[in-house]
From TrEMBL, chain A:
Family: Belongs to the peptidase T1A family.
GO cellular component terms, A-Z: cytoplasm; nucleus; proteasome core complex, alpha-subunit complex
Descriptive protein name: Proteasome subunit alpha type
Oligomer and partners: The 20S proteasome core is composed of 28 subunits that are arranged in four stacked rings, resulting in a barrel-shaped structure. The two end rings are each formed by seven alpha subunits, and the two central rings are each formed by seven beta subunits.
Cited CDD domains: proteasome_alpha_type_7
Pfam families tied to this protein: Proteasome, Proteasome_A_N
Function in brief: The proteasome is a multicatalytic proteinase complex which is characterized by its ability to cleave peptides with Arg, Phe, Tyr, Leu, and Glu adjacent to the leaving group at neutral or slightly basic pH.
Compartments in which it is found: Cytoplasm; Nucleus
From TrEMBL, chain B:
Tagged with keyword Transmembrane: no
Source organism of this protein record: Zingiber officinale (Ginger)
Cellular component aspect of the GO annotation: cytoplasm; nucleus; proteasome core complex
InterPro entries with a match to the protein in the record: Proteasome_bsu_CS, Proteasome_sua/b, Proteasome_suB-type
Protein name: Proteasome subunit beta
Length: 251, 274
């Protein structure tokens, strides 16, 4: 099989594109990222690995905006992400110029996914090693949307999804606990999903909320800490409620 | 040898495969094609444009009102002083919700409107919703701009009804694009504007608006030799466009200004009828 992973353009006999699969592996090793769609807000959360003391953490933004109403978070190769984000930002403005309308979330997702696919079918290039979570509000209908793309160039819409490290556990958690939420509840759901796989604490999580009125808002560390504390308290209360009233220990 | 700098064009429409560098000496040089060798290139260019810029012999008009957009046009085609046709369709149906008008070179307008229709359909298929009038007019304007100076003659109005309501844009071969509520294009437009502007009200019924448009076209065909034939009137509403009428302007003349026969002429008319 090793002969079929030299150049991206080659299929293996059993129909695999190995370079694409290796790219997916790179995504699986990237930081955890989660996205949750609420009725009036969409929340993106990303795991923040501990910042070295001398690093200026503000220069390492993992959740970025593509336009005033679209944001993106990703898992995988960060340098590839930068290139993709720049192209997407240009496309957002180009679309505004040619049709005098902001992009819809689906349009820009289709563009990014198309770009990722192009690099799986060209000579001498490798696929982008990242999966992106793209959120935003459609400019005309105001409907919130969450999409995910992956290195193969496929994309689909989600109510909530996770990618990167331990994404399976996060997705399981979301499948069990997802319900239509709004405002702060959506933020809590996203943080709870992240906390499943990340060390608790505001300095290990980066959260951003996208609303129609205010666009993208990054939460402060203190805010995140407060919500985490709330979540812990709720968890503790739930545990206590489950435990039966204390009996005398049997001898 | 002067070389035109096309490095700004990512994909020049004339060279779909990308512009190819001529001599191949310096592959890093900007792509270009050769221009004619003459002493006064600017003068030559001006003459060429004058030669290829036929006056837009026609009358078309469109205006937005309460019930949507009315689009009207004559149907005469002229080659100099020769009337080549009295039955040209100057209102083209881009899609069931959008109309375009033809003024200038018929071939240019017909081709680019059809091309626009294709682009609009592709947009619909890709984005699962109809393109806006704004978007469609911008697509056409950008195409025409990329052919600026190459002799296209297009003076068109794009009229339609989209999610934002009725929309009307004027687009021409210079690359200009104007949003507006009342436009008339062509050699008969001054006459049409006279009637249109003085009779226009936003709150008109569809019949009143259609009659205003019809009269405006009629008066333009009366005074302008390059306009005539049939006055067509279309209406674009929320459900799409509908052709309202197509009246021969000669008959319209006698409808608006019925002949008052002198007694002798009346007698002659009666006896010949008897």
């Amino acid at each position: 099989m090793a002969r079929y992973d030299r150049a991206i353009t080659v299929f293996s006999p059993d129909g695999h594109l190995f370079q694409v699969e290796y790219a997916l592996e790179a995504v699986r090793k990237g930081n955890a990222a989660v996205g949750v769609r609420g009725t009036d807000a969409i929340v993106l959360g990303v795991e923040k690995k501990s910042t070295p003391k001398l690093q200026d953490s503000r220069s390492v933004r993992k959740i970025v905006s593509l336009d005033t109403h679209i944001a993106l978070a990703c898992a995988g190769l960060k340098a590839d992400a930068r290139v993709l984000i720049n192209r997407a930002r240009i496309e957002c403005q180009s679309h505004r110029l040619t049709v005098e309308d902001p992009v819809t979330v689906e349009y820009i997702t289709r563009y990014i996914a198309g770009l990722q696919q192009k690099y799986t079918q060209s000579g001498g290039v490798r696929p982008f090693g990242l999966s992106a979570l793209i959120v935003g509000f459609d400019p005309d209908t105001g409907v919130p949307a969450l999409y995910q793309t992956d290195p193969s160039g496929t994309f689909s819409a989600w109510k909530a999804n996770a990618t990167g490290r331990n994404s399976n556990s996060m997705r399981e958690f979301l499948e069990k606990n997802y319900k239509e939420t709004s405002g702060q509840e959506t933020v809590k759901l996203a943080i709870r999903a992240l906390l499943e796989v990340v060390e608790s604490g505001g300095k290990n999580i980066e959260i951003a909320v996208m609303t129609k009125e205010q666009g993208l808002r990054q939460l402060e560390e203190a805010e995140i800490d407060a919500i985490v504390a709330e979540i812990e308290a709720e968890k503790a209360a739930a545990e206590a409620a489950k435990k039966p009233p204390s009996k005398d220990s049997l001898v | 040898m002067m070389e035109l700098d096309l490095s700004g064009f990512e994909s020049c429409p004339l060279f779909p495969g990308g512009v190819v560098a001529d001599h191949g000496e310096n592959p890093l040089a900007a792509a270009s094609f050769q221009l004619p060798a003459c002493s006064d290139f600017d003068g030559f260019q001006k003459d060429a444009i004058q030669m290829t810029k036929p006056a837009k012999g026609t009358t078309t008009l469109a205006f937005v009102f309460k019930e949507g957009v009315i689009v009207a046009a004559d149907s005469r085609a002229t080659m100099g002083g020769y009337i080549s046709s009295q039955s040209v369709k100057k209102i083209v149906e881009i899609n069931p919700h959008m109309l375009g008008t033809i003024a200038g070179g018929a071939a240019d307008c017909q081709f680019w409107h059809r091309n626009l229709g294709i682009k609009c359909r592709l947009h619909e298929l890709a984005n699962k919703r109809r393109i806006s009038v704004t978007g469609a007019s911008k697509l056409l304007a950008n195409i025409l701009y990329s052919y600026k100076g190459m002799g296209l003659s297009v003076g068109t109005m794009i009229a339609g009804w989209d999610e934002k309501g009725p929309g009307l844009y004027y687009v021409d071969n210079e690359g200009g694009r104007l949003k507006g509520t009342r436009f008339s294009v062509g050699s008969g437009s001054p006459y049409a504007y006279g009637v249109l502007d003085s009779g226009y009200q936003f709150n008109m019924s569809v019949e009143e608006a259609a009659e205003l448009a019809r009269r405006a076209i009629y008066h333009a065909t009366f005074h302008d030799g390059a306009s005539g034939g049939v006055a067509s009137v279309y209406h674009v509403g929320p459900q799409g466009w509908k052709k309202l009428s197509g009246d021969d302007v000669g008959e319209l003349h006698y409808k608006y200004y019925p002949m008052i026969l002198t007694p002798t002429e009346q007698e002659m008319a009666d006896t010949s009828a008897a």
